[in-house]
Amino acid sequence: MSWGAPRPGGIELDGFARATYDYDGRVHDVYRAGSGPGVIVIHEIPGVTPNVAAFGRRVADAGFTAVLPSLFGTPGKPVSVRYMLGQGTRACVSREFAIWALGRTSSATVWCRALARDVHEELGGPGVGAVGMCLTGGFALAMMVDDHTVAPVLSQPSLPLGLTASRKAAVGLSAEDIAAVQSRAAGGCDVLGLRFTGDPLVRAARFDTLRTLLGDRFIGVEIDSSKGNAHGIRAQAHSVLTEDLVDEPGHPTKDALDQVLDFFATRLKG
Predict the structure, then answer these.
(1) Backbone torsions φ then ψ of 132, nearest 5 degrees
(2) CA 160/CA 103 separation, integer angstroms
(3) E strands of the chain, at which residues?
(4) How high is the pLDDT of residue 246?
(5) For residue 165, which phi and psi values (nearest 5 degrees)?
């Protein structure tokens, strides 16, 4: 495993330094900003969009080193329906992402865990934070298998996909990893989860499972997106920290963002 110089032809993001990270032959560009304890920000579909990068800058501004791996997509490219569908299709056929599988952890989490380990060794502190979003929402939970991940955040964790009750309730981990996560929770590691109540990709059953598995160590933030809700949140709202964030005091998505940053501050800075 090693950090390397940026690959030729890569995309630069304003305010971020770019390098490559290689673990076990898998190489991805990684963007970094800020200083302080590390927080791994794992993007949603379709990639490191402007709003994902903006969230990373907020993390950096809050006193952390924001580390954004680019697992797919074009960094900095805005969201569009065509872009979403293209990258979603790519993820569905990739062996790295357990899109439909029950009882299996996505292999991409192994690379993310190695990245988190090296970031922690470099930056020190009590550990690292991790945020997964949508397709990668459960990655932060899988990274909790390692002791150095001390502040995992699951933002709209969407895997496994599917219409069956078992898939709606599943958390996208192998039985072995679930046992390790339960052990960490029993030892005092909290997990923060975010979802909109009407999100068809993240049903209430998944958060119910997390509460059953982790008990009081699971902090579930469920934002009302039902018809006629007080804040006019659209029924299909999905991305709590990015595309559906309303950066206004008193708005529940802004409150959720502040809670995430406070979660990192409490667990990474003491």
Answers:
(1) -110, 150
(2) 9
(3) 2-4, 17-23, 26-34, 38-42, 65-69, 128-133, 149-155, 191-196, 218-223
(4) 98
(5) -60, -40
And the tokens for 55? 């969230």
- Residue in this structure with the two tokens 């009750």, named with its chain if needed: 165
pLDDT in tens, 75-92: 999 999 999 999 988 888
- Between vectors from CA 9 to CA 8 and to CA 11, what angle results, nearest 5°? 115
Contact in structure between 207 and 222 (CB atoms under 8 Å): yes
- Contact call for residues 196 and 225 (beta carbons, < 8 A): yes
pLDDT (average), residues 225-234: 97
In this prediction the pTM is 0.96
Q: What angle do CA 226, 193, 40 make, to 5 degrees?
A: 130
Distance CA 84, CA 246 (A): 21
- 216: Cβ contacts below 8 Å, ≥ 6 apart: none
Eight-state DSSP code of residue 126: S
**Amino acid present at 69:** P
H helix count then E strand count, the chain: 8, 9
Per-residue pLDDT reduced to its tens digit, 111-162: 999 999 999 999 999 999 999 999 999 999 999 999 999 999 999 999 999 8
